[in-house]
Amino acid sequence: MKVLILSPVLLLTAIVNSFSTQTLSSIRFSTVVLNGYVPDGFTEESYKKFKADEVAKKKAANLGRMGPKGFESRSMQSFQEALERGEADHLMPVFNAQEKIKKGEIRPEE
User: Fold this and answer.
1) pTM
2) How far is it, in rounded angstroms, from Cα 107 to Cα 25?
């Protein structure tokens, strides 16, 4: 019987304590020391120098020089005009092309 009376009291105490705020004196402050990452085999200075050299190599590589050259976007109207002049071909495949050629729906050039 004592256990049945004691357990609701403990439960009620736990609930009340979970909603109460802590006083400033009960909060503990800790100091955190932040250390940087230095791989094995490097000193802090040599690793900084190594990273600076890597950045310089990356800038000197000029990776943009291998990018697309001469691409010019055009409008749908200019594409249609080029199709009419015969300068551009159809860009999409024709499905069932052999059957459509036999029926006479399309020419073999298309």
Assistant:
1) 0.32
2) 91
Give whole-number Cα distances, 73 to 78, 86, 92, in Å.
Answer: 10, 19, 18
Q: So what's the pLDDT on residue 6?
A: 54
40: which 2 tokens? Answer: 């094995």
pLDDT of residue 96: 83
Q: Tokens standing for 44? A: 């802090």
Instruction: Give the span between the Cα atoms of 40 and 45, in whole angstroms.
Output: 13
Phi-psi region of 96 (alpha: psi -120 to 50; beta: other; left: phi over 0): left
**Contacts of 88 by beta carbon, 8 Å cutoff, 6+ apart:** 79, 82
Enumerate the domain spans of the chain: 75-110
Interval 34-89: pLDDT, tens: 777 888 899 999 999 999 999 999 888 877 777 777 667 778 888 888 888 888 76
Q: Phi, psi (5° rounding) for residue 12? A: -65, -40
